[in-house]
Amino acid sequence: VQLQASGGGLVQAGDSLRLSCAVSERAFSNYAVGWFRQAPGKEREFVAAINWGRTRYADSVKDRFTISRDNAKNTVYLQMNSLEPEDTAVYYCAATSRYYSSSPRLVREYDYWGQGTLVTVSS
Questions:
Q1: Are 94 and 44 in contact (CB under 8 A)?
Q2: At residue 27, does pLDDT exceed 90?
């Protein structure tokens, strides 16, 4: 399973960005996909996850970010609105088929990772 994250860039506070995660897996719909981020000097942290129709968000992004998936395109999206400088990080997408109904939020619960895309939010 390979994942390709894209869509990062440099934006100003208050702007929006949409990240995409393309997954090369024929049984894509059976996989939970999550977004994580890692700022310089910090640990990788959970942002959002989706598994079938169930979504889950970190408190810091709830009401600003929306995760969605298009199974026909094998792609998961992360729509990020009202971006803040604190959102600056490398964003990674990850996938796992181990969980049937839940949307995992721990790094160790995911088996496959993309290469990351940098999001920089200036104040």
A1: no
A2: no
